[in-house]
Please model this.
Amino acid sequence: MKGKLIEPISICVSSFLLVIFGLFLLTNSNKGMNFILIGAKTILIVLGLIMILSIFIKREDTILSSIIGGTLYLLFGICINFWPNFFTNSLYCVVGIWAFINFLWRLILCIQLHINKDRDFHRTEIECIISLFVFIIFSFFRPKNVNLVCIFLGVYMIFYGVNIFIDFIRELLCWDKNGEHIKRYIKWSPPVLLTAFIPRRLIEKINRRVKIELKGSKVFETSKRNIKDEDIKLEVFIHMAPQVAMGFGHMDICLNNTVYSYGTYDSEAQKCFGLIADGVLAEMDKEKYIKHCLKINNEDIVSFSILINDEQEEKMQNYINEIIKDCTRWQSKSELDLEKQYNDQASVFYKNADAKFYKFKKGRYKTYFAVSTNCVMLADKLLGSAGIDGITMNGIITPGTYLSFLNEEFKKKNTIIVRRRVLV
Model:
């Protein structure tokens, strides 16, 4: 089945609009805020009315959610209209709280990196101080003649627009259409608040489609080229299920039919409800792993197939081998005692997917931390070893963020992401 691809001209238009609007917000911060207020209340009221009116054409099981959602949109839009200052102050609070959350997790990361003697400690320390500075500015200092929220948003939109324009140039030149270039290009990621919950929403969407349209099909494939399975050496898997990382999902990669997954496989080393644990790298057989995830764990998996050349394959395999050399072999309970039955995650994967586990001796990945040194960060590092494009990691990163990035890359004509499949 052929998916709808993004034309280069639409990428170019989007980038120019983002840059122009970003410059407008920077140079006219107060007028920019008025524009945002008018746009926000108009969009919310229109969306609210559409949702309420849509009850006449929707299924019965969605009518109540449409009424509640539409009413909330209407009320929020009306509140912005009558109390604009409250909305403006709320934006300051949201940015301030977000900066404080970033400060807290970076502080924890600093402590983690210091304990593990990681060389990125000083860079993270600077990021931690910057987050604290942003929190203090937005929480306690609000200049009357300058709207900091607009400046903050304007800078972000300009960077994002420039990043998209680079994509336009790459599309125009058919850059890396066949995976011939090794140099990596880092993309500016969208706000995590917009992408973190994508796995949850996608689970619901997939379930609805399976029930209504797909009638029991197990693989839904969208390909951009006629390509054989044996030509695919690299895949990225995004796992989705309510029980997978509290619904935020999981990410791992597969190279030459071997899955490499980083996570909290040592259940006895988990702390703070699994947010912090010993970092464990798992190496598993692809077919057995996928079968286990789908049939035993009841997960949905979005798979992205990436076309790489022999040099990229060799670089990635060498990088993985170097990582494993710096690790110690760790054994699950089932591996240590074959006669007893164990139900912990590592033991189950050992029995069902021939998993081998490795613990890091030192460095950033020695300790797993859910909002930074997580499954996404290591998977991105592995992809980066072959020069495959990635996204900015300066902030909380989730599988949803990466899923959004991979989807956008797949929609472009001239990328090495050649196939997308949904496995249920």
